[in-house]
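Recap from last week: sequence in, structure out.
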Amino acid sequence: MPKHDFRGEARAAIARARGLMADQAELPALRYAALEARTAMEALTYDRAQAYERDLPKSEISTWPPKKVLTVLLSLDPLADTGKSFSMSEKPSTGTPEDFEDMFDFGTETVLNLKVIKKHYDAIGYRLHMPTIKQLEEEGQHDPIRLRTRLNELLMYLEKVIASPVFNITMMGPNTQLPCVRCSHIIRRAIKENSTVGKARCPECSLGYDLKLNEDGGFDWYPERATMKCATTGCPEELTIYRNDLRVGAVVRCNSCQENTLIVFGSRHFPQIEGKVTGPILQVKLT
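Predicted structure tokens:
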């Protein structure tokens, strides 16, 4: 699917909002400006998500509230809503980064971050609706001056985002990647600074992983698995099954006896002696 021009959509929405905000604009016009400002926030957030498209589960691509979308992105990359500067040099004079000469500055990216979304998105959305009877009694009609002030503050920030000479720079912090052991999809995760553990989930097949820092400074990936005893009488083999496959009706084939074990949900009467339940117990151990 071709990339959608969300930044173009945001730029147009910001321009329409500015056009509706004349000095003498009354509340009805400001409401339309607020709607356009929210549209711009949504478009910029989707533009950011589009840069992480291969890292996002398909179910998350259909999510539309900007706060939720950005929260998902931050779970993939802790720097997803952090502005960054990008510059480079042809070669260093002495070989150390601080001695780089002739640095070319590509500019700084301003990102629509979670803090700004939390501050403005719902606040201006509230003013798109008619106040309830109780709100009219306690607060009166929405104040157009306050709304214009808030919109000006927000639009100034959104204009900085749109004007960024570089944008959608992703996974710039410490990061790690691995082909999924089940479906081979490349999974990428950025890791918080100084973190020794992390979590990841394949966006294609949903297999989860635990990430642990190794001695080389990289991360080892451990798929979420469970083990259980083969159900074939006399077979000592332990079966391994991925955690999100552990469900009623799943079938696991034993590599030793070549028989199948069916995972079922059931109940059985156990005798009780001195307050303790006795009898055979199927134990599932997590690895």
